[in-house]
Amino acid sequence: MLVRLARRAAKVSIAVFVSVTLTAVVTLVLTTFALYFYQVERAQRWEQLRKTLANSADELAAAVALPAWNFDETQIVTIMKSGLSNRDLYASAVAPVASSHPFILTRNEQAQLVPAERLPADPDLLSEQRPIVAGGQNIGTITVYASPAQLVVQLRQRLYTIAGLIFVLDVTLVLSLYLLLWQLILKPLTNIERYAASVKAGQNSGVEPPRNWYSGELKTLNASIREMVRLMESRYVAMHASEERLQIASSAAAIGIWDWNIANRQMVWDEQMYRLHGMEGRKLDDPFEAWRKMVHPDDVMPTEMLLQQALNGTAEFDIEYRLIWADGTVHYMKADAMTFRDTDGHAMRMVGVNYDVTDSRMAEQELRRHRIHLEELVAERTNALSVAVRQAQAANRAKSTFLANMSHELRTPLNSVIGFSRLMADSKNMLPEEKRNLAIIHRSGQHLLTLINDILELSKIEAGRAVLQTEVVHLNDMLQEVLDMVSMRAVQTGVELVVDSVGLPVSARVDGTKLRQVLLNLMSNAVKFTAQGKVTLKVRGASHNGQCELAFAVIDDGPGISADDQLRIFEPFIQADGPGAKEGTGLGLTISREFVQLMGGTLAVQSAPGQGATFYFTVSVQVADDAPQPGEDEVAALEPQQRRRILVADDNADGGALMESLLKPLGFDVAVVGDGVQALAMVDVWQPDLVFMDWRMPALDGISATRQIRANPEIVQPGIVMLTASAFAEQREEALAAGADEFMRKPVEQAQLYAVLERQLNLQFVRRHRAAVRRLPPTPLERGDLQRLDAALREELKVALQELNLARVAALLAPLPPALADVVARIGYMVQLHQYPQLCALLDDAGTELEPIA
């Protein structure tokens, strides 16, 4: 019902609807106000009637007092008639106390006052009663009656008048509003409706609606409609052009378009659809049936099933199928369609596109054949690679075994070389030059240890496990160490070594081991390949905000490097051609390049045949406070009450002797055994406090011995420190897992040994630091300085230098007087730098003239 009312309301004119609605609102407002004022007036008229009644009762009570006192009936009736002159008063009654017969006057139907026998009985009458007082005595009562009939009639007439006025006003308002709305709104809207209908019908679409009737919002609406029509016209043109382009594009892309009216089963094909089905130039009455007959028999069922699902709304029609043309050829077709439905969801129309994918399917089949063939080849190659991988893994395990054995076999004697050279350095009976030579032996042993570590480091680099370990390094001392370690080879070949450093900070935080190794590799190569001439280590520093850019360059006067060799010298085990090409392993430049890259730089070379070579790189370091003064900690022997028993188990006699030489001077009781079996027996019998257990030993190795010690609950468990000459970090975890308390690598460093002893035995050694004195290089030695020496002394010095008898040189210089101390210091500095050829040349140039000694 509500729907029918809404539909009927939709057919009502907007002018009528607005007029009636507005009139209803105005009527409601006016009625409200009219009723309000009517009620106010009604209340006032009633109040006025009651007031008139009361006043009349008062006046009559006062007027009839004297006649009632005198019992003057005529006078009483006259006064009563006079008091009822107001037509709103209906009757009056005087009841004297002394009489039982009241005086009553009422109005008859002609509104005349006549005597009556009874009081009025109409309940609608109003009454007021007053006492009659004379001489201070109550002599009777008077009652006055008023009739509201005339008032009611007047109020009813007033109400009818108001209703009539409101009705007239409503009719006038409806007519006025309707005419106004018709002229200003309804008529323009009607014109717009007719214009829109003509545009919809395609008639006079370019004609604009009349403009005389439009103002305000209708003017805006009129302008909007004109703009909409213009836009629709332009879009129609664009759509037409787009359809033409779509037709061209579909023809170019070989896309056929079809439209199927499902209700009447009629299908329409465009020209391209006929081409796709091999029917170019033909027209079919029933293209749908022709299409069904051309579908490949194997594809009929899935195609029709998907089509039915698309009509039911459970799937989209997107399928690939095969067509068999009239000539028997098979074509692959791709179809995609959209379904249009009515309000009830029933399929009414389907529009779709078809395109030929035969070429791509043929290409896919060809690719599939190639892929199968390729997979066969890959499987064949994979099998071959699996064999190669297994071989490579076996070779890698063999390499690891070889490196472990090589590390152990080489580090074991190095442990004795480095350890005993360190012990000999503490001797009080050695000459300074002998101590210096011993220090060179010690550093050379350390360098040999570094070379062994380099081979292991190369395997770390290949595995990507190399990391930086920075420390505070005194740069000038490091450069001097590098020169000292290559100076002997330089003296033998007559090569001059030069350090050219400018702008270096005193100390810097850098991986000193790797930087030293890089410089040593480069300097060794330069000396090795330079038959004669000079090798310069050039360093430049540029500090800024706590950072310093260090630029290193090693420059030699050697034969140079060809362009082809420059491309391959950084590869492992590759060496350039030259006089020293057969020396070394060919790993130095490879490791150096990796170390420089790890420090954030790039190692490069600049060279040409016959012009020497320059290897250079730049690294950024952090400027640090001055490095600690070089020197050693002297450890005092323990007090007798602090003595401990220490067992050393090592199959290498030199290694055991070294540990005994290091431990006994500290006040320990030391026992040395040669294998794990003896170690187990000594632990059981001797009960040592600490055991230094070598990893590799005959009969029973250190790991097995440690496990057996830890598994025996009946013995006092000693501390166990595992010693090994291997350099693989994985062995530390294995040793600790077996029960060892500490892990140390050979060669044993004294500082590390002291720290281990303190931790394991809960001791505290008394140390005294013995700092080395860093001396500044003296001023260069000149010919005039040597002329102050005796000619015979100069000749003896020359012979001693040529024989490399440094002890003889020291003995010849020792007796010289203090006045020649500066000359002795300069000669000693050149000897320290191994500048023997330069010193011999200065001795030859000094002549025979001797300057007098003051």
Give a short summary of the structure:
It is an enzyme of class 2 (transferase). This protein has 854 residues and is an alpha+beta fold.
N-C termini distance: 143 Å
Provide the β-strand percentage band: 15-25%
**Strands, count:** 24
Compute the number of helices.
25
Over all CA atoms, what is the radius of gyration?
A: 65 Å
Low-confidence stretches: 771-776, 848-854
The CATH architecture term of the domain at 13-213 is 2-Layer Sandwich
Q: What's the shape?
A: elongated
CATH level-1 class of the domain at 13-213: Alpha Beta
Q: On the 0-100 scale, what is the average pLDDT?
A: 78
Described by strand count, sense and barrel closure, the largest sheet is: 7 strands, mixed
The assigned structural class equals: alpha+beta
Helix content: 40-55%
CATH-defined fold name of the domain at 13-213: Beta-Lactamase
Catalytic activity: ATP + protein L-histidine = ADP + protein N-phospho-L-histidine
Modified residues (4-aspartylphosphate): 694
Transmembrane segments: 12-38, 159-185
Pfam families: HATPase_c, HisKA, PAS_3, Response_reg
Any overview of this molecule?
With 854 residues, this protein is α+β, with helices and mostly antiparallel strands. Among the domains are: 13-213, Beta-Lactamase, CATH 3.30.450; 467-623, Heat Shock Protein 90 (2-Layer Sandwich); 633-769, Response regulator (Rossmann fold, 3-Layer(aba) Sandwich), CATH 3.40.50; 783-847. Helices cover 52% and strands 19% of the residues. The protein has 25 helices and 24 strands. The strands form five sheets. Strands 11, 12, 13, 14, 15, 16 and 17 form a seven-stranded mixed sheet that branches. The chain has a five-stranded antiparallel sheet with strand order 3-2-1-5-4. It has a five-stranded antiparallel sheet with strand order 7-6-10-9-8, sandwiched between helices. Helix 11 (432-463) crosses helix 15 (588-598) and helix 17 (676-686) runs parallel beside helix 18. The longest helix is centred in the middle third of the chain and has 67 residues, at 358-424. It is elongated, with a radius of gyration of 65 Å.
